[in-house]
Amino acid sequence: MSASTGPVGVGFIGVGVISDTYLEHLGSFPDVDVLVLGDLDTDRARSQAEKHGIPAWGTAQDVLDHPGVQVVVNLTIPAVHAEISASAIAAGKHVWTEKPLGLDRESTSALLKAADEAGLRVGCAPDTVLGPGVQTAKREIAKGTIGRPLFAQTSMQYQGPEVFHPNPGFLFAKGAGPLLDIGPYYFTTLVSLFGTVEKVAAVGLKAKEERAIQVGPNAGETFPVEVPSTISVLTQFEAGQTGTSLVSFDSPLARQGVVEIHGTEGSLVVPDPNMFEGRIAYVKPFDSFGEQPPEQEWIEVPQEGVVAGRGTGLLDMVRAIAEGRPHVASGELGYHVLDVMLSAEESAASGEFVTVNSSVGEVPLVQEGFDPFASTL
């Protein structure tokens, strides 16, 4: 970014459904200014620009050519995430991309190398880990509230997106499934808390080879299931902790947002990693009990920090660039989470433990007093 002060110019490539929440939140942050929207469907780009008061619209190339754009927000489909982000880097722009960073190790590692050589930043969703929920829980663990963390359990399970999504086929295609679609929220949270994953083991299954759309104009049409629709992942962290994680599109019982951290001196409930806030509470171990254990007392932990929403990670990145510090939701973190998930896919296919070859440095905490709605640049 230039040394000039004032809001950082932002352009979007891809203006699908998720662009609404990004545009709403970024529009409330004084440190960023959305200047242009680009999409394959320029009429859709124009409609979104008019809806959110953005001054310009056009194609992806129009965004890359815009002289005021310093950061590109990549909201395209996962299959072209790495390609579009690489184009932005080549155009001299920093990148914030939706998850996952890409769909393979080769293109995503090349993207990060190109950004590093160009002196540019890459940030990657999910940025829910910057919310007061996960951040408060992380600080509580660092304080020693539950002693030494030993293991984690996470779960996200329900009967699948075809019950509400009018075109769900892509969510069961290669590069998606519950692992790559929902897994980033859970594994980003675990890596943020524990650090590098050393190895993984996984088992998966398909409940059906074909599924049917349940809602909308295409209800009744079938589509193929290309990847496991249920997968259980065992993670071994470099620091010694372990984790068990279930992600499923096959469960009649709906249960999501389960993140529990168990330590030597207590067990901590962390909020749903798909949200920026939520309940944080812990229990302490019993000293002793008789024939029946008494009911455990939950100790509630008040959240600390300001709740903003999607785009908080981008805001942290532009402030970090100006301040010369690392940003939280980094490309390095996004790559390691992708590597963990691809390794889990490989383990499920081979039936063996898979070593995760990437690593990530300590994921920084959000700075105390971080206020998305303040003007700081």
TrEMBL record:
<feature type="domain" description="Gfo/Idh/MocA-like oxidoreductase N-terminal">
    <location>
        <begin position="9"/>
        <end position="123"/>
    </location>
</feature>
<dbReference type="InterPro" id="IPR036291">
    <property type="entry name" value="NAD(P)-bd_dom_sf"/>
</dbReference>
<dbReference type="InterPro" id="IPR000683">
    <property type="entry name" value="Gfo/Idh/MocA-like_OxRdtase_N"/>
</dbReference>
<feature type="domain" description="GFO/IDH/MocA-like oxidoreductase">
    <location>
        <begin position="134"/>
        <end position="269"/>
    </location>
</feature>
<keyword id="KW-0520">NAD</keyword>
<keyword id="KW-0560">Oxidoreductase</keyword>
<protein>
    <submittedName>
        <fullName>Gfo/Idh/MocA family protein</fullName>
    </submittedName>
</protein>
<dbReference type="InterPro" id="IPR055170">
    <property type="entry name" value="GFO_IDH_MocA-like_dom"/>
</dbReference>
<dbReference type="Pfam" id="PF22725">
    <property type="entry name" value="GFO_IDH_MocA_C3"/>
</dbReference>
<dbReference type="Pfam" id="PF01408">
    <property type="entry name" value="GFO_IDH_MocA"/>
</dbReference>
<dbReference type="InterPro" id="IPR050463">
    <property type="entry name" value="Gfo/Idh/MocA_oxidrdct_glycsds"/>
</dbReference>
